[in-house]
Amino acid sequence: MRMLREMTKTPFYVLLHPFQGFWDLKYENKGRLRVALSMLLLLTVATILLRQYAGFVVNFNYPYDLNSINELQYIVLPFFLWCVANWSLTTLMDGEGKFKDIVMATGYALLPLILMRFGNVLISNIITTRESAFYYMIDSLSVLWFVWLLFIGTMTVHQYTVLKTIVTMLLTLVVMGIIMFLGLLFFSLLQEMIGFVVSIYNEISYRI
Amino acid sequence: MKLIKSISKVVLVLTTVSLLASPLQAGAAPYEGYSYSYWGDSVSTPNAYTPAGTIDGTEQGIGKLLEPSDMYVAEDGLLYVLDAGNGRIVVFDQDWRVVREIRGFVRDGKNEKFNSPQGIYVTKHNHIYIADTENRRVVELTGEGDFVRDIGAPKSDVIRAGFEYYPIKVSVDHAGRIYVVGRGVFDGIIELDAEGNFTGFMGTNRVKFDAWDYFWKKMSTKEQRSKLEQFVPLEFNNVDLDSEGFLYTTTSELTSSDPIKRLNPVGEDVLRRQGYWFPRGDIYSMGSSESSLLIDVKVGENGVYSALDSRKGRVFTYDQDGNLLYIFGRMGEQEGTFRTPVALERRGDDFLVLDKAMNRISVFKPTRYGALINEANHLLFSGKYDEAEQKWKDLLKLDSNNEIAYVGIGKVMLRQGENKQALEYLKLGYDREYYSKAFGKYRKEIVREYFGTGMTIVIVLGVALVGFSFLRRRARGKVNADVT
């Protein structure tokens, strides 16, 4: 019971006191990987809910296009891509964070997105078009807060200076692109290879 | 022999069965009605208009029409058909009897003929204006076919060198100003005053090019540039006047977002585009092969206008706000289909489409569905919202996907103060603006209704909470006191 309380309390502490919070996560062993991963799950749920149940005045989604599996593609995949890219980069750039630390910091940083998306589901259902500015303001505010937390998290986890953190974060985005490119290349080559093997098999089976 | 017999028997049986099985609709049309939903998907609708015969002149005893190029319904209901191939104008009355034929005119004692004329217009005073294309002039005749005047090429300093005058369409407004559409004239519509003097070009289409073209043009040398395609605006291909004297124009451009324009007297486009999609015929989300090529526009009553698509032979009708009302027609060889549609006219609620290749006029009459839309629109336009609501409701019985009907009903309900129901209908019609209005009112209603109860509950709860914590603190204090 006490542990559960601790686990729910820490993310909110991080939310409001990022410097101390991220320090505690790493150096006071307050961070839990489970919490970070459930954050990811919650964000996915929140996004699905928002897309499905946001009020009519701000919901422009075509119901036939909504697919919850797609959210994995747009949330879970980038999340791990970020972590992997950040980790591969910081190991080369004297970062102090382990992969676990990076996942944890990124996961805890998602909290504003989660809270505000849940909040927006409710708010969007009681606003008119004229008040929809609030909805969009909250939306962009949550993104800004997330970026702020991510920035502090990265800085604390790797013990970087401000400038180095910014450079690292930008480079991480580049690395994410490179990983995606390599992935696509790999899969298309694999496809070619499989096609080649299959056609050889077909050729032989027709001859015999 | 036996085999052939049995085969023919089978075929006969099969044909009978298929004939019986085919749904025998009343006035079945060779096309299927459809419309575009809010999301841009094409959705089936009942047919709004069905073919009701064709006119090619043989039954009227005047010989077959030959490559007719244009027609016009005058205010008194007479239809003037410009039978270009035969070089004549045929005037039909409402019952398709020939009133007269005009085979040229007498000028200064000499007979003159038309040379492949492309456009015709009839004024309120029954004066006929003909765009006599290959003779490079506009001719004005009286209703009986007597020569009044002819207007040659416009002369002015502002007209560029190499300007070739081939008038193809002509319109005349209440004040007698003449608007001429010229072939290959990309400067705009040629505007002439009542005397026929050139006053200017109206509503030039904007030049369109992309950044990539611009880049190449900047990079190339002068010689290369002269070989490159020039960026010129597209020419108008047709013109019609509405009752307020505004010009409706069409432009033949694939994948254009605004092929239909409504020009005010200054030449600005003031067409209302409040519908789900801009009025542009078929929505070409799948690529330019689906795009329409509009060739004629006709303004009807109540701000409704229709455009004719020469590519797929469809007639699109929009209301004054730019909502798509209905679509009908298609290419083909049957009655009610076209090979080369060139002109669209409206007489009362009937549509007439002139086919240049089939040399005939196709007549279309509204079905119950089409008539309901027309009536609802008329009621809406004249401000009889409550009566319009009933029409929309009848319409929904025929087509429960009709989003415009939902919006119509929703707006009426909003006016009647039935906010909650209005919300439902406006949501079905995807009208966010009015939905939001209705929602604001509904929210106010709810707040007003439950404010008292809500506040009471909040205050009671608040007091209870304070009291509870106070008691608890005291109890705890006592416990503490006991311990110490």
From TrEMBL, chain B:
Keywords: Membrane, Repeat, Signal, Transmembrane, Transmembrane helix. CDD domains: NHL. It comes from the Bacteria. Residues 1-28 form the signal peptide. The keyword Ligase does not apply. The chain crosses the membrane at residues 450-471. SUPFAM superfamilies: NHL repeat (SSF101898), TPR-like (SSF48452). GO terms for molecular function: zinc ion binding. InterPro entries: 6-blade_b-propeller_TolB-like, NHL_repeat, TPR-like_helical_dom_sf, TRIM-NHL_E3_ligases. Pfam families: NHL. NHL repeats lie at residues 52-95, 106-144. This is Gluconolactonase.
